[in-house]
């Protein structure tokens, strides 16, 4: 099938957990880019007998299309040189694909091809400075095969802090809504609430939810509450996406639990939880606090998380949490980029290698796995490596293997530095092995549901026809790294493990309503403090319409 | 004569400041006023008129015929094509130009100057600590102008970014900031500085090293007077709340400047972030030169000097010599204002066919096989350009040209694609 049309995927073992289907042998029918109930006899078929059929993968948290990523790309010519990526040879009649480079932060086109090659068809860049949204959209335009969007950084935004300081939470909500629309964003992102603003001053960071931010009447707690409430009041498809305070710090479990309790009873997504689940500190050695954190998550249905698993090997830390990157630079001596973004946020970048013989790296690896293995609800504890912070998205198959096969996990556990993991749940033995259906939940159905993408992550009638078909094999990592077929919007893009078509992806963004009384004040604020004109700030001139709203 | 109409929030690419607050007056299809006054903006916008010719071997041609000819010769030279990203085009056009370069397995060079390239390479070796220009405006309380007076090449830097404006954390504007001017030989700092230091060219990197040592808290022995003064400035920077080190990243006036200064400046700015906060502000020329580097990085991982000849991007910064690259090419595609790189191409143009798509293509001083005039980014062509700090800017063109560079390049890409073996003609 060379164009969207009809296709019957015949006889595969279908894992469609959103529709209660767990490995049943059945057909999946596609017409005009959507899943349909049935097709007339004679429709084209794809023989999937003996294979595993799942919806296309959905990455809820990745860094692949932003100004920060581009700063990171610029920092690693050595990695690019070691991983040239010639253009895939597409099917006859297709426009030629593009070449690029890989490494921990691949070039744009290569990113799209490699995601598709894993069976992923949707991904979100999880941290975009509003000022640079225009750049992110151009990168998304150059990232084929993926539907996607951006999360917009707001947790250190000067205008927002002013509204909180003034007690104007309604105005803060209107601003958040305006900013999402102006930047073509999909969700509200908080990174180290208040901490990035503190980094720009002599305070340098905040350490507790009730610290004042740079001497102002604003606290991380108030930022969390304001933006969590804003996202829920605006009925955004995805709740506020929170990267909390004290990332990567021994003993940060207390801050993490306090942050969850601060927004208790309200929908909120806590991201790369692994980096926020450490015990120790105050003179005590690092330890795993995964069990404490996941116990809270298990008991609170309004909370969702992605794990941010660390995988051993090269990584690139890219985050708006600039004070953390300064500490990484000082402790590692590696290259360091820091870009302070006016009125909004920051950006820090340090290349990093996680080594199984390094005690902290080993602990991080264990903490992530414990979060997965102690999770009571895979729909709310979904897969990520915080690409490329904990490892590349290309490591997802190896991570899936660790979750599904205890023997592989235990073998690796024997090889890691044991210094900090004695007494951890994983070291004491966690027998759980994820099933294929649970993998389908944490890699597609769960993220889609958490993102409010009703047309994605499942194979029910009316869903986007994004389908991944795997050949079964004894090696799970190989199975998940080389899907036999991938269908995107009804088009067969991967055939026999090779990318054959590379259609452009669709932009997923929202345009929530707001009280436009905020606009005159915003215009004055821009005139006084911004260096980009208010009239030029919006990306509304770029093509495309919002496709997901409340 | 028709009455003047005005277009607001226009972006100027006359230098890398990327001011987007201009009001442009238009009457009878010409630009009649530019406000606020800026000498570079006056030159950049001029009267807004650009030629709209299409030429083949110097004679008028239809666009279709010219592009067919261009596609034939470029496709015929695939693997030995040089693509030059010259200034004055949008990043949308740059992205399409790279699609062509990839298709043609071409070598790509930009209009990045030698000193700017040194800065990029220094940043790749050690990273960099920078800020968007508004952050300097809003926070910097100490501003060090390192051998540059921005009033010449960046006329509004002083009033728009620093030190003059009132910032969110600098409520008194200029009065609330300390301005330090260091001169290196003939490269003078600005007048009106609070602190001044004059250095000889051979003292530049030693002075940066001394300042870095002070920032790191390292003990220093006896220092000669100029270096002692540099140490004092280092101490002043280390005590700042937020310092900005502003330097000229484009070619200097002083011929004897140390080629390793970019590394020294980068290292100093990084070191200052231990005792204080600091950002390096690299002054870059306009015309969306920064955009070329941004787009190249997105699509290839490298900011300049990329070769697609092997079928995937390869970085060739050591071979970054436009004249030599042109001499080695079997065909050359210049995208943008070709006259800006004309000196490097004129000799090669006598031997190899040149295709130019960009503003004033028909008026270049060297022979071009095909020349297609287009609009200029931000004056006639809408889309995106990048400021010197890599901030993307919306372009709100006050005029229209006969054709945009992005549209012509898209047509050339389509025509070249049609010449692939097996493609339907």
Descriptive overview:
The complex is a heterodimer of chains A (550) and B (425). Chain A is an alpha/beta fold and 550 residues long. Chain A is 32% helix and 23% strand. In chain A, strands 1, 2, 3, 4, 5, 21, 22, 23 and 24 form a nine-stranded mixed β-sheet that branches. In chain A, strands 6-9-10-11-12-13-16-20 form an eight-stranded parallel β-sheet. A three-stranded antiparallel β-sheet of chain A has the order 17-19-18, with helices on both faces. The two termini of chain A are 35 Å apart. By secondary structure, chain B is α/β, with parallel strands linked by helices. Helix content of chain B is 33%, strand content 22%. Chain B is built from 13 helices and 20 strands. In chain B, helix 3 links the parallel strand 6 and strand 7. The longest helix of chain B has 15 residues. Chain B starts with a strand and ends in a 7-residue tail after the last helix. The mean pLDDT of chain B is 97. The chains are: A alpha/beta (550), B alpha/beta (425). At the A-B interface, helix 1, helix 2, strand 7, strand 8 and helix 4 of A face helix 3, helix 4, strand 8, helix 5 and helix 10 of B.
Describe what is shown at a glance.
Chain A has 550 residues and is an alpha/beta fold. Chain B is an alpha/beta fold.
Question: Helices and strands in order, then pairings?
Answer:
The complex is a heterodimer of chains A (550) and B (425).
Chain A: E1 6-16, E2 21-31, E3 34-36, E4 45-47, E5 51-55, E6 57-62, H1 67-75, H2 77-81, E7 84-85, E8 100-101, H3 108-117, E9 120-128, H4 133-141, E10 147-153, H5 158-165, H6 169-183, E11 187-191, H7 195-199, H8 220-233, E12 241-243, H9 253-262, E13 268-270, E14 278-281, E15 284-288, H10 290-298, E16 303-306, E17 313-319, H11 322-332, E18 336-341, E19 345-354, H12 359-373, E20 381-382, H13 396-404, H14 406-415, H15 436-451, E21 467-471, H16 476-481, E22 485-488, E23 491-495, E24 498-499, H17 518-529, H18 534-537
Parallel strand pairs in A: 1-4, 1-5, 6-9, 9-10, 10-11, 11-12, 12-13, 13-16, 16-20
Antiparallel strand pairs in A: 1-2, 2-3, 5-21, 7-8, 14-15, 17-19, 18-19, 21-22, 22-23, 23-24
Helix pairs in contact in A: 5-6, 6-8, 9-10, 10-12, 13-14
Chain B: E1 5-10, E2 22-27, E3 30-35, H1 39-45, E4 54-56, E5 59-60, H2 63-76, E6 81-85, H3 91-103, E7 107-110, H4 114-126, E8 127-131, H5 133-139, E9 142-146, H6 157-161, E10 178-184, E11 195-199, H7 204-216, H8 225-239, E12 243-248, H9 261-271, E13 278-283, H10 289-300, E14 306-307, E15 314-315, H11 322-328, E16 331-335, H12 342-349, E17 354-358, E18 370-373, E19 383-386, E20 392-395, H13 405-418
Parallel strand pairs in B: 6-7, 6-16, 9-10, 9-12, 10-11, 12-13, 16-17, 17-18
Antiparallel strand pairs in B: 1-2, 2-3, 4-5, 4-18, 7-14, 14-15, 19-20
Helix pairs in contact in B: 2-13, 3-10, 3-13, 4-9, 7-8, 7-9, 11-12
